[in-house]
């Protein structure tokens, strides 16, 4: 009997040990993924490539007009003139920089905010309602995403010129209300973020479509809304070509167009070279975008990862 029992114990040990080893190795691979030296180096190169322009902008914003051309671009030189440059930027030409900043805020709030609102409504409707021609709408949206905005700038200018809207804020705000990429992003996000069973339960309880959308669906769409808002805000804030062809009055310029006008002053007859103010103005221009990304980062990251894991 003892001879018969011993192999069974041994066999049990042999079958249990490999299973334990496999479970342990699998868990170790999930908790501690293998590090790639090549991927780490590539990420470091991309990080340095992305940070160098910001470092250059910060360093050269602290230089005077003379020291810009007599010193190394990636290191400080002479007196630290950052605060004096900021003051000169805000007061130059009657404080026109402040007017350009308010214009940009107006275009972002009305244009990017309106584009986000329309994208949320359209994306939710396309994701949760069925109607004739839905596939055609999908094809139009995908085609609109593939068309660059510069290709539509000239036809848009001709149309707005016929309506007498050029050289007005509406010429920048109205085209900014259309965001095909934002609509497509909200469409795909709403399809995964809002369960159909939840909407059916709300309708069975007697809730109307507006109440269902604002009280049930809208909170679930929060991460996607923030993501679309960030994309549209950056696109409107950095918009240059559309205001360039639509506006000729400097009082309605956004920051991008105004700083370019300052930069071109040096090439005009009798114009002042104010490159230090242009660089400082560029630094002040990107600060609101950096603050927006830092404040909304957690919502943006959760919006990008929504639907990535199937429960």
Q: How would you spell out the order of helices and strands?
A: HHHHHHHHHHHHHHH
Structural class: mainly alpha
Kindly provide the radius of gyration, computed on alpha-carbon positions and rounded to a whole number of angstroms. 28 Å
Mean pLDDT: 85
Helix content: over 70%
Name of the CATH first level of the domain at 93-305: Mainly Alpha
What is the strand tally? 0
* β-sheet strand percentage: under 5%
From the 3D coordinates, which CATH architecture of the domain at 93-305 would you assign? Orthogonal Bundle
**Shape estimate:** globular
Unreliable parts: 1-26, 307-311
Q: Can you identify the CATH superfamily of the domain at 93-305?
A: MetI-like
Please give the largest β-sheet. Answer: none
Count of alpha and pi helical runs: 15
Spatial separation of the terminal alpha carbons: 51 Å
* CATH-defined topology of the domain at 93-305: MetI-like fold
Written description of the protein model:
The chain is mainly α and 311 residues long. Helix content is 73%, strand content 0%. It is globular and about 70 Å long.
List keywords for this structure.
311 residues; mainly alpha; MetI-like fold; 73% helix; globular; disordered N terminus; disordered C terminus
Topology overview:
Layout: H1 2-31, H2 37-60, H3 82-91, H4 96-128, H5 134-146, H6 149-163, H7 170-176, H8 180-193, H9 196-204, H10 209-220, H11 222-237, H12 241-246, H13 255-263, H14 275-295, H15 297-305
Helix pairs in contact: 2-14, 3-14, 4-7, 4-8, 4-11, 5-8, 8-11, 9-10, 11-15, 13-14
């Amino acid at each position: 009997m003892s001879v018969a029992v011993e192999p069974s114990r041994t066999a049990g040990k042999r079958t249990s040990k490999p299973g334990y080893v496999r479970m342990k190795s699998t868990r170790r691979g999930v908790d501690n993924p293998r590090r790639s030296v090549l991927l780490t180096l590539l990420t470091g190169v991309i990080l340095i490539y992305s940070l160098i322009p910001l470092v250059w902008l910060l360093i050269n914003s602290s230089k005077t007009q003379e020291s810009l051309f007599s010193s190394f671009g990636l290191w400080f030189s002479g007196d630290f003139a950052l605060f004096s440059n900021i003051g000169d930027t805000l007061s130059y030409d009657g404080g026109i920089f402040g007017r350009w900043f308010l214009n940009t805020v107006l275009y972002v709030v009305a244009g990017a905010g309106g584009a986000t609102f329309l994208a949320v409504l359209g994306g939710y409707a396309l994701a949760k309602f069925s109607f004739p021609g839905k596939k055609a709408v999908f094809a139009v949206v995908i085609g609109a995403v593939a068309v660059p905005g510069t290709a539509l700038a000239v036809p848009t200018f001709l149309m707005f010129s016929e309506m007498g809207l050029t050289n007005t804020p509406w010429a920048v705000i109205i085209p900014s209300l259309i965001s095909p990429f934002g609509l497509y992003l909200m469409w795909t996000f709403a399809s995964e973020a809002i369960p159909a069973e939840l909407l059916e339960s709300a309708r069975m309880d007697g809730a109307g479509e507006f109440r269902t959308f604002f009280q049930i669906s809208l909170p679930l769409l929060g991460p996607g809304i923030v993501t679309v808002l960030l994309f549209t805000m950056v696109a409107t804030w950095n918009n240059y070509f559309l205001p360039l062809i639509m506006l000729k009055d400097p009082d309605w310029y956004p920051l991008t167009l105004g700083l370019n006008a300052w930069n071109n002053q040096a090439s005009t007859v009798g114009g002042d070279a104010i490159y230090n103010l242009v660089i400082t103005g560029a630094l002040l221009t990107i600060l609101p975008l950096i603050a927006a990304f830092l404040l909304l980062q957690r919502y943006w990251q959760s919006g990008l990862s929504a639907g990535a894991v199937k429960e």
